[in-house]
Design goal:
The protein is α+β, with helices and mostly antiparallel strands and 270 residues long. 32% of the residues lie in helices and 27% in strands. The protein is built from seven helices and 15 strands. The protein has an eight-stranded mixed beta sheet with strand order 4-3-5-6-7-8-9-10, sandwiched between helices. It has a five-stranded mixed beta sheet with strand order 12-11-13-15-14, sandwiched between helices. A two-stranded antiparallel sheet has the order 1-2. Helix 5 packs parallel to helix 6. The longest helix has 21 residues. The chain is globular, with a radius of gyration of 17 Å.
Length: 270
């Protein structure tokens, strides 16, 4: 993850943006992008992207253009960093939107209804507003820093989990992580030995929703891209999770406070 971003905000400065309005816009745009994906699910064709097995469709690109165009019109002094087209706008802009217009594209082209949209507003790398949208199920999870998390407008909160050997945790990893990555293999095996189940959806937007409502007790993200990570961690934290980051920034652990210390020992975060 880029040094520009921080998972846990530390600033106390009051933003000069109406965060409620920004959240509402992000929800609206995420829902539009999600509806576009649902509409084209039967016909979207995959094209190779990069060198790590990732794919892209015309829906990814069209959805990002839609989202970026509206943000640029409403907030012309903000920058947009999207998964498909990179940075648009001033690289030194105080406010930057992170956009994954179709999270879980590999699932999408396989016909699996595990895909969504991630939109986050950051100020100097600190997340202020986040939305993750589960497109197939029409579920929009949102948060404003310091104001809790919601699902389709209703507040949500994590419940206390069962002991570690009875809980499900989610595993995320970036596309730069190879199949033989020793640190990833070590952590994954350690989690499998200690937890009831390690879930791999390959769609962070789905996992962030599951942790926000307490269906999974923790999220372990290894070398993930910022648009899939920063906003989801904000939503989880506003739903009651704690967040720990390794010293090198490559491992982010998001979990219920009752089990985070135990999980940190398993994945090697001190």
């Amino acid at each position: 993850m880029s040094d520009w971003y921080v998972v846990a905000p530390v600033s106390t400065r009051v933003p000069d943006v109406d965060l409620a309005a920004a959240r509402d816009l992000a929800i609206e745009l995420a829902q539009k992008a999600g509806d576009l994906a649902v509409q084209h699910a039967a016909s979207a064709a995959a094209l190779p992207k990069g060198h790590a097995g990732d794919v892209v469709t015309h829906v990814d690109q069209e959805a990002e253009r839609l989202i970026a165009a509206v943000i640029n019109a409403v907030y012309p002094d903000h920058a947009v960093l999207g998964e498909e087209f990179g940075l648009q706008g001033d690289p030194d802009a105080e406010y930057r939107w992170l956009v994954d217009p179709l999270d879980g594209t590999n699932n999408y082209v396989l016909g699996l209804d595990l895909y969504g949209v991630c939109i986050t507003l950051c100020r100097r790398g600190e997340p202020l507003v986040a939305v993750v949208h589960d497109s197939a199920r029409g579920r929009s999870y949102a948060a404003i820093v310091g104001h809790g998390a919601t699902l389709n407008g209703t507040p949500v909160r994590m419940l206390a989990p069962e002991p570690l050997d009875r809980v499900t945790v989610s595993w995320l990893q970036g596309y730069a992580v190879g199949a033989d990555d020793p640190a990833g293999q070590r952590m994954f095996r350690s989690l499998e030995r200690s937890c009831k189940r390690v879930l791999r959806t390959w769609a962070p937007s789905i996992d962030w929703g599951l942790i926000a409502v307490g269906r999974v007790a923790a999220m372990i993200a290894y070398r993930n891209e910022p648009w899939d990570l920063v906003g989801g961690a904000l939503i989880a934290r506003e739903a009651g999770a704690d967040v720990l980051t390794s010293a090198d920034g490559e491992i982010v652990l998001v979990a219920h406070p009752d089990i985070i210390t135990e999980l940190a020992a398993l994945v090697g975060i001190e």
